[in-house]
């Protein structure tokens, strides 16, 4: 059996607490399901700064490049607020994204029926919600040049950011969205601002051409990104896969995230281009940060981290049945009324990080038997 190499980067704050719950699942899968995971571990963020004076060491970067997938906890915290900009905790994550060339960010927004009441929208609008936002992650206005503030010499300054997209960047992110749609509801909605942006005109054209050339079996719709934002909070269940650029994706995925209740529930994946063997570099991480306000208290919700591992099983190792079972285990535990503090509601039983992880593992074991 081929080895499956995982690099675990727990990071700071609640990162290590949440990662501990994934470690238990990996140990069970190796012992009982013959999963064959080999795990290595490294430091990232503040913990790497404390040990090496950088946000991630060269040795750990090499491990990340060699791994089949990286599981990332969270980075940051007040302890490192004053460290130099280039070695701030987030620089570790940015370096990983850059060196692994992770251009596709996948943010599912799933509303578990048991949590429909925790949404800011009416429960009937979000119950059973299952959408996937595919955001372009390495191009667009966050990286385009020129990017500067210039002094105009008349007491005024000018801030400049540049939105740039080349054909290949749009083609490859559209391809990821269409391929993922085929494994779900077979529908893609592409969002841009072609009415006011040239890059939006090109985005629209290239997505349309990519669709016609290779994915005409998938249903494609185009929407202006501002209208898309409105539709996301008006009738979110109309969407299956949304594909959009870096800037709009940043905002729309946060809007979609909040439809589902809590930050502690939200996983994400970032994928690179396939290599000669069809294997993509990949990093899986919860959407939440290091939550310094609750770190070390044993009360963090590990579900976002566990659901990120489920995405890893699905997208890096094609272990679809195992990913389904892990996601079902999360849903069943929530249905049974077990909650961490962040998603607590009346009549439920409040537990800590370890107990939540154990409850999910128990159901996962039953479903896997
Ligand atoms: P945060 O996501 O860490 O926390 C926001 C709020 O949500 C806090 O009240 C926190 O207790 C709660 N929360 C988050 N995750 C939770 C979980 N799993 N269970 C229960 N409650 C949870 O965001 P923040 O407070 O803005 O940032 C804290 C630190 O994390 C900062 O240093 C920030 O830079 C960093 N950060 C890192 C990442 C990352 O590693 N990818 C992302 C966002 C923020």
TrEMBL record:
Its EC number is 1.1.1.85. InterPro entries: IsoCit/isopropylmalate_DH_CS (IPR019818), IsoPropMal-DH-like_dom (IPR024084), Isopropylmalate_DH (IPR004429). NAD(+) binds at residues 77-90, 289-301. Its cofactor is Mg(2+); Mn(2+). Mg(2+) binds at residues 226, 250, 254. PROSITE patterns: IDH_IMDH (PS00470). Signal peptide: none annotated. GO terms for molecular function: 3-isopropylmalate dehydrogenase activity. Its main location: cytoplasm. Pfam families: Iso_dh. SMART domains: Iso_dh. Residues 5-360 form the Isopropylmalate dehydrogenase-like domain. Belongs to the isocitrate and isopropylmalate dehydrogenases family. LeuB type 1 subfamily. Homodimer. This is 3-isopropylmalate dehydrogenase. The lineage of its organism: Bacteria, Pseudomonadati, Pseudomonadota, Alphaproteobacteria, Hyphomicrobiales.
């Amino acid at each position: 059996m081929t080895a499956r190499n995982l690099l675990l980067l727990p990071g700071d704050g609640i990162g290590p607490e949440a990662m501990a719950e994934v470690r238990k699942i990996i140990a069970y899968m190796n012992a009982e399901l013959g999963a064959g995971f080999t795990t290595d571990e490294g430091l990232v963020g503040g913990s790497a700064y404390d040990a090496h004076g950088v946000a991630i060491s060269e040795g750990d970067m090499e491990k990340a490049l060699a791994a089949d997938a990286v599981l990332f906890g969270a980075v940051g915290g007040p302890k490192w607020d004053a460290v130099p900009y280039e070695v701030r905790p987030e620089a570790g994550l940015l370096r990983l994204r850059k060196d692994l060339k992770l251009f596709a960010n996948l943010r599912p927004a799933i509303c578990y029926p048991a949590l429909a009441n925790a949404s800011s929208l009416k429960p009937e609008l979000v119950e059973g919600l299952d959408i996937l936002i595919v955001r372009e992650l390495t191009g667009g206005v966050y990286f385009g040049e020129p990017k500067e503030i210039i002094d105009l010499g008349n007491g005024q300054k000018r801030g400049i950011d540049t939105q740039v997209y080349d054909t290949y960047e749009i083609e490859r992110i559209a391809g990821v969205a269409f391929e993922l749609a085929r494994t779900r509801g077979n529908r893609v909605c592409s969002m841009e601002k072609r009415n006011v942006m040239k890059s939006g005109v090109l985005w629209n054209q290239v997505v349309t051409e990519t669709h016609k050339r290779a994915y005409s079996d998938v249903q494609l719709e185009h929407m202006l990104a501002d209208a898309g934002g409105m539709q996301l909070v008006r009738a979110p269940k109309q969407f299956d896969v949304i594909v959009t650029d870096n800037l709009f994706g940043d905002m729309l995925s946060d809007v979609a995230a909040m439809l589902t209740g809590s930050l502690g529930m939200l996983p994400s994946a970032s994928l690179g281009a396939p290599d000669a063997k069809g294997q993509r570099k990949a990093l899986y991480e919860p959407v939440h940060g290091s939550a310094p306000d609750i770190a070390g208290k044993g009360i963090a919700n590990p579900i976002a981290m566990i659901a990120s591992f489920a995405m890893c099983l699905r997208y890096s190792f094609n272990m679809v049945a195992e990913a389904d079972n892990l996601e079902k285990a999360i849903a069943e535990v929530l249905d049974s009324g077990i909650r961490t503090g962040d998603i607590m509601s009346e009549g439920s039983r409040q537990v800590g990080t370890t107990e939540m992880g154990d409850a999910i593992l128990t159901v996962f074991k039953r479903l896997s038997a």
